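Quick one, T. Sequence first:
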Amino acid sequence: MTNANERILQPDELEAMALGTWILGTGGGGSPYQNYLNVRELYAAGKRVTLQDPMSLADDAMVAVLSSQGAPLVGQERLSDPAMATRPLRIMEEYLGRKFDALMPVEIGGGNGLHAIMVAAETGLPAIDADAMGRAYPEAQMTSFAVADLQCYPLALADIRDNEVVIPKAHSWKWMERISRKVCTEFGSLASTCKAPRSGLEVKEHGILYTGSKAISLGKAVLKARQEHSDPVEAILEECHGHRIFRGKVTDIERRTTGGFLRGRTVLEGLGDDANEQFVLDFQNEFSVGSRGGEPIVMTPDLICVVDSINGEGIGTESIRYGQRVDVLVLPAPEAFLSPRGLELVGPRAFGFDFDYRSYFEDQQ
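Structure tokens:
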């Protein structure tokens, strides 16, 4: 039985959510397509997902924060599986000696946005309409919960070989990232995880709220534009209050899987109004900095989204390929990451660049 603070996700919303999370993934989080197919199969078997308003959570509710961790490229070979995705949640419940009341994704971007939905369908637990990034980020400390300096432990990981690891304590968020990344790399650079449990109060005060609904609305806007033969890219910009910053063709890609991440660079040659210009995108799982004429003009935490110029489909760093016609968009960052602490964790210096964050949106004013 649902109430005014809960609703059952309809089958058509699942497709829209998959499309929206792929765009919000800023190139990372893995493709949501496999998770979308898994959820469709669970729906065909009679299961359903309840999406719950985060503000309806009891302060003492215990919320599981779920994700798939690793390099997106590996996810193309190791297909997602509801049973594996659910295991860390059960491991954490056993460790804590308490059942979870609800679950949420650590990031709404990419496949991880549908990862928690898949587990919600599998378990019957409600999915909270929130996440901790408002997009996708590659590292454990790059969350709104870390910005708020909440406790980073315990953490549970599992892989396809029946390996299970619980990290009961870590010195800091960055240490948790280092330790869990080593485990994930030994697992083959792909693991299912249950992050540090969050209370209902912590989700309400420090989560990025209503991002599930945002992904659904974004996906619906793109689908509507396709049906009406209007511009899906313009629909994204209107829905998310963003800007188109470059249109071009992919002419060079360099990527490598190292240390549990997919790192590299993509070069675009301009088309249309951007003809005779070059645009370079650096990425670590997600697109982190975009440069024009050798100068960085857009950077994290602003969302750098690369989409197909014709249909508005999101394009991941593991799947972008030579010859694709793409638009580079920038969408506003969640407020939590614009604070000094937020920029310390997710600004360009956090990705190894030797310059400070400059908002693309401030430059346009």
